[in-house]
């Protein structure tokens, strides 16, 4: 089938202008500039490297059918590159779930697995089950990689955990992203771990920067300062949950201005409540209450529990940032950097002769269509 439409084409860092786009059997065969008004805007699909689920389904908990449902939801809302995230779980639960998620990956519904834990710091557990958190265990990491059948693409661990260098070595050998987070480490210890990971050729990210870390303090800068410095040097890409809940919009502005959007990757950290109403949900072994769209751990005494993942999509965060005054090309850079981190750079551009990997929106940034690898997602 061949179809053609007029749209304003926007790329990361560059607005191309209005073009006549022709797609034949899912391949872009024409991309021609025209002097006409456009009622639509087209830009590359987005990347989400930290995502726990949606529409009542949870990647750490659900069966194959449920995980496929959650993945399809995020695909249809613009995340053309997607990692499914686990949480800290005992090995007897984590390893079988990694096998389920490997099945999801082999059906093409996700682009790999992100393991958030279990080698993190209990004092910065956030919405992770402290009972399941353990010191760094290289043997267990090897088992995780084996159980995931080559689909483990990222793991969050604290730089101060035991055997951190061995964990980094294994990640570098198996092309697994080293994502530092859920940490109480000093700036010096974090910088040392980053330096070692750089020396081993590992790809490095920061798991939801600022969240589950000590606040940045002028006399005790902590992991945040080290990760920002490394991002400014081009050694680290920092995850931001730019939803107005996990981070104040001005914090997002500051990071984008400080390190540049190319060293930022917006992530949803979505959990099962994404796309659903307020109510009760599960994240791993923990009960979660969602009220006014904000997910928090359920407490028995009515006190406010820790934030327990997100309820937005990366596309929602893109729209929020644009409405806050950021240019769409700059925001797209931060929303597509994950493609590059996973070796999917072709999904971050729109070129004639390539498979369609783009989103078609109204000018008000309402999604009309999503294409991924020459197929329409819907």
Observed structural traits:
single chain, 378 residues, alpha/beta, Urease, subunit C, domain 1, TIM Barrel, 7-stranded mixed β-sheet, 7-stranded parallel β-sheet, 9 helices, 29% helix, 26% strand, globular
What do the pLDDT scores average to?
96
CATH topology of the largest domain: TIM Barrel
- The rough form would be described as globular
* Main pleated sheet: 7 strands, mixed
> What is the CATH class name of the largest domain?
Alpha Beta
**Backbone CA Rg:** 20 Å
State the CATH superfamily name of the largest domain. Metal-dependent hydrolases
Largest beta sheet: strand ordering: 3-2-1-4-19-20-21
Number of strands: 21
State the end-to-end distance: 17 Å
CATH architecture of the largest domain: Alpha-Beta Barrel
| Class of secondary structure makeup | alpha/beta
Count of helical stretches: 9
Helix content: 25-40%
Q: Give the count of structural domains.
A: 2
Content of β-strand: 25-35%
Order of helices and strands: EEEEEEEHEEHEHEHEHEHEHEEEEHHEEE
Runs with pLDDT <50, length 5+?
none
Organism: Corynebacterium hindlerae
Family: Belongs to the metallo-dependent hydrolases superfamily. NagA family.
GO molecular function: metal ion binding; N-acetylglucosamine-6-phosphate deacetylase activity
Domain Amidohydrolase-related: 41-366
């Amino acid at each position: 089938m061949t179809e053609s439409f007029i749209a304003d084409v926007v790329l990361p860092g560059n607005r191309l202008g209005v073009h006549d786009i022709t797609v034949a059997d899912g391949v872009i065969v024409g991309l021609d500039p025209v002097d006409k008004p456009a009622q639509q805007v087209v830009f590359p699909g987005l990347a989400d490297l930290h995502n726990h689920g949606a529409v009542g389904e949870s990647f750490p908990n659900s069966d194959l059918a449920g995980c496929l449902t959650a993945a399809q939801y995020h695909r249809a809302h613009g995340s053309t590159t997607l990692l499914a995230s686990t949480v800290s779980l005992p090995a007897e639960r984590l390893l079988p779930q990694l096998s389920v998620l490997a099945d999801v990956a082999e059906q093409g519904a996700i682009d790999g697995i992100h393991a958030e834990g279990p080698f993190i710091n209990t004092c910065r557990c956030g919405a992770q089950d402290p009972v399941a958190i353990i010191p760094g265990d290289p043997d267990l990491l090897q088992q995780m990689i084996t159980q995931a059948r080559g689909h483990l693409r990222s793991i969050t661990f604290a730089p101060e955990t035991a055997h951190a260098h061995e964990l980094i070595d294994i990640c570098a050998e198996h092309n697994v992203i080293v994502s530092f987070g859920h940490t109480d480490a000093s700036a010096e210890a974090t910088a040392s771990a980053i330096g070692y990971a750089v020396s081993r050729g590992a790809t490095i990210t920061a798991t939801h920067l600022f969240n589950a870390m000590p606040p940045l303090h002028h006399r005790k800068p902590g992991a945040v300062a080290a990760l920002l410095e490394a991002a400014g040097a081009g050694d680290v890409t920092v995850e931001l949950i730019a939803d107005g809940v996990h981070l104040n919009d001005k914090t997002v502005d500051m990071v984008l201005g400080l390190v540049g959007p190319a060293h930022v990757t917006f992530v949803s950290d979505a959990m099962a409540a994404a796309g659903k109403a307020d109510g009760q949900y599960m994240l791993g072994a923990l009960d979660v209450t969602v009220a006014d769209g904000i997910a928090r751990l359920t407490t028995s005494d009515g006190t406010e529990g820790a934030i327990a993942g997100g309820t937005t999509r990366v596309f929602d965060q893109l729209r929020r940032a644009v409405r806050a005054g950021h240019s769409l090309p700059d925001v797209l850079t931060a929303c597509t950097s994950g493609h590059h981190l996973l070796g999917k750079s072709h999904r971050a551009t729109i070129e004639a002769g390539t498979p369609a990997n783009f989103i078609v929106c109204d000018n008000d940034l309402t999604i009309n269509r999503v294409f991924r690898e020459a197929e329409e997602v819907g």
